[in-house]
From TrEMBL:
All copies of domain QRICH1-like, residue ranges: 50-123
Lineage per the UniProt record: Eukaryota, Metazoa, Spiralia, Lophotrochozoa, Mollusca
Listed name of the protein: QRICH1-like domain-containing protein
InterPro entries per UniProt: MAVS (IPR052787), QRICH1_dom (IPR057926)
UniProt organism field: Mytilus edulis
Length: 174
């Protein structure tokens, strides 16, 4: 009879896969978009660093200077300011990237205080310009809500439909 071990034996590739799968698909997307935006910024500014990989190799002081400028100068492709939540998401993506590549936390590390102070100042400026407001959608009208409840996707006949109905009710109550 074969004896099984209490502890698994994993290969380095298995460990790498586990590490790579720890972030959700959305988080990976946010990281990718953040890297692309700062990469575009670096190319357009034509400074010392041309790519995010160059920035990964830079001194902490240079990264702080770059982020400080970036937070103030970053714009959407049409030239308008990002919304407050978008800028927060952008910084989150960069933070995840720099933790991975530089082993530095650009949000909580004291060395990044100057960049974070500028980020906070931009949050205040954006609020003054109305970019911190949340644009709420129109609520679902009662007639459309009745249509949803009558639809088979929200019936009480199957576990999947019941789950969808409970989720809908939960979301409507928030």
């Amino acid at each position: 009879m074969a004896e099984t071990s209490r502890f698994a034996s994993l290969e380095p590739d298995d460990l790498t896969k586990i590490l790579n799968d720890r972030d959700s698909k959305n988080t990976k997307n946010v990281i990718g978009v953040s890297k692309r935006i700062i990469g575009d910024y670096l190319l357009e500014k034509d400074g010392l660093y041309k790519t995010i990989q160059d920035l990964d190799q830079a001194t902490t002081e240079d990264v702080v200077k770059t982020l400080r400028q970036f937070y103030v100068e970053v714009r959407k492709t049409d030239g308008t300011l990002y919304a407050k939540k978008s800028l927060i998401t952008l910084r989150f993506g960069l933070q995840k990237h720099f933790v991975e590549t530089r082993k530095e936390d650009i949000i909580n590390n004291e060395e990044y205080k100057a960049a974070n102070d500028m980020f906070k100042a931009m949050m205040v400026a954006m609020k003054k310009k109305g970019k911190a407001n949340v644009n709420h959608k129109e609520p679902i009208c009662p007639e459309d809500l009745q249509k949803l409840y009558k639809h088979e996707q929200f019936s009480l006949n199957t576990p999947e439909a019941l789950q969808k109905r409970v989720f809908l009710v939960f979301v409507l109550l928030l």
